[in-house]
Amino acid sequence: MSESPENQEVTAYDVVVVGAGPVGQNVADRARAAGLSVAVVERELVGGECSYWACVPSKALLRPVIAVADARRVDGARQAVTGRPDTDGVFARRNRYVTDWDDSGQARLVKSIGADLFRGHGRLDCPRQVTVTRDDGTRQTLTARHAVAIATGSRPNLPDIPGIKEARPWTNRHGTDSSTVPARLAVVGGGGVGVEMATLWQGLGAQVTLLARRRLIPRLEPFAGDLVAQSLSEASADVRTGVQVTALSRPEREGPVTLTLDDGSELEADEVLFATGRTPATSDIGLGTVGLTPGSWLDVDTTCLVKDVDGDWLYALGDVNRRALLTHQGKYQARTAGDAIAARAAGRLLDDAPWGDHATTADQHAVPQVFFTDPEAAAVGLTAEQAEHAGHRITTVDLDFNAAQGANLYADGYRGHARLVVDVDREILLGATFVGPGVSELLHSATIAVAGEVPLKRLRHAIACFPTVSEIWLFLLAAYQRNQEASKIGSA
Question: How many domains does the chain have?
Fold first, then answer.
């Protein structure tokens, strides 16, 4: 049923947003706050992938698994843990957080900001024009006076290997909406989705085999993937790196799946989940009508304006521009782009210099990300390798978390590691990585330090409370100071 405004004759808006996930909602909200009229188009559930098949359900499912693991790390609490998480309770919790896949609440939210919601498939017909095809085949044409914002997200990228169609593999969607625990689950892919799904389903009782072409979480510092792999192995998962799946076979619809690996060996599982990257959801939104390639990632400038399209009207936000496939980063882009759309509409000058109001500078310098594995892995900014490749002169500071008493009180035998990447010329942080129980809550302080380019001499005056896990900052900065003093003595 369409939820377009009652007056069907009104088809002209200041802004048309294609995609009503968190990114689309944020740009719509920002544009409405500036007094612009906004239409929002959604062909699936309002709230998007994040709300129903990704961030929200995966974290709702993972939290009970991690809570049990945390309890087992504390003497006196571990004795009370007598088994695995209750799967019925875990799935009921997930269902509650995804509102049983009912998007009426989020539809009301879109309306509450004063935007008009159109349900159906939105497709560009020509510059500044989007046609919405509803499920019943009827159409509504929307024109945009100032901007069309593409926020259609991404889809799982399945490899083209023999037997994959017949194998009916899980993707992140099946991995987060299933309410049945397979006895044996093969997870293909060692990135963020792969390691989180392996952690989740192993914790719920599946025997998990995790297959990765490279080390786990390859975009983080190497120690992050190493610690996560070690923990998964200790939890009885079979972690194999440096392997690829070359073929799949599932002769019986309800039978097991056989995976053939590149070394010629075979692996049998009851289900197989592919977490092998994402592809932009742009193949059928009419890009060809404005001179772009259907199915492509969209290249954007610092305000998220699509390049190679004349007229300063087409924006691409979130996953589709490939800058950082993270919900929070897409929302940041949406807020920034929404302000830029409003400024252009009003004829105001843009503040698009680095760190300006209309510049998505953090996309290049301060992207935070957390993987809710056991232990958690959290990072912001550049790794040491990335910083050196970018031409920075750096030094790194590494410490195990047991240097901080707060960590030892948080978990008996706390195991984790932290690294700071320091620009030695400016003495600011370029990046930080933390791996350990609960470290996701440390990340925002690191993000502020990186985005704010806080001098280390000033940062050491930011005192961490005793006894908290955050005390690791004190020891990291002290270690950096000792290293610098030793370096000065050595060069004297």
Answer: 3
| Residues 169 and 219 both lie in one domain | yes
177 and 130, same structural domain?
no
Helix (H, G, I), strand (E, B) or coil at 379: strand
Residue 394 in contact with residue 412, Cβ under 8 Å? no
Pair of tokens at residue 5 = 């405004």
Within-domain flag for 93: no
Query: Domain check: are 222 and 270 in the same one?
Result: yes
- pLDDT of amino acid 236: 96
pTM: 0.93
Q: Are 476 and 439 in contact (CB under 8 A)?
A: no
Question: DSSP string of 170-217?
Answer: B-HHHHHH--S--SEEEEE--SHHHHHHHHHHHHTT-EEEEEESSSSS
**Sheet of 368-371, strand order:** 368-371, 376-381, 428-436, 417-423, 394-400
129: left (phi over 0), alpha (psi -120 to 50) or beta: beta
Residue 2 CA from chain centroid, whole number: 31
Give residue 317's domain range: 12-47+103-155+280-362
Residues 123 and 212 in one domain: no
For the stretch 80-112, pLDDT in tens is 999 999 999 999 999 999 999 999 999 999 999
- One domain, residues 285 and 270: no
Whether residues 397 and 346 fall in one domain: no
In a domain? residue 111? yes
> Encoding tokens for residue 375?
């232990």
Of the candidates 338, 362, 386, which is a domain's last residue? 362
- Which CATH number characterizes residue 481's domain? 3.30.390.30
- Rounded CA separation 182/270 (Å): 6
Biggest CA–CA distance in the chain, Å, is 80
132-190 pLDDT, tens digit per residue, is 999 999 999 999 999 999 999 999 999 999 999 999 999 999 999 999 999 999 999 99
DSSP 420-473: EEEETTTTEEEEEEEEETTGGGGHHHHHHHHHTT--HHHHTTSPPPTTSGGGHH
Picking from 364, 326, 84, the residue whose alpha carbon sits closest to that of residue 193 is: 326
Residue 58 lies in a domain: no
- The residues, ordered by sequence, that sit 6+ positions from 336 with a Cβ below 8 Å of its Cβ are 303, 304, 357, 358, 359, 360
Task: Evaluate whether 163 touches 31 at the Cβ level (below 8 Å).
Answer: no
Q: 255 and 266 in contact (C-beta within 8 Å)?
A: no
Task: Please name which of 405, 482, 418 lies closest in space to residue 449, comparing C-alpha atoms.
Answer: 418
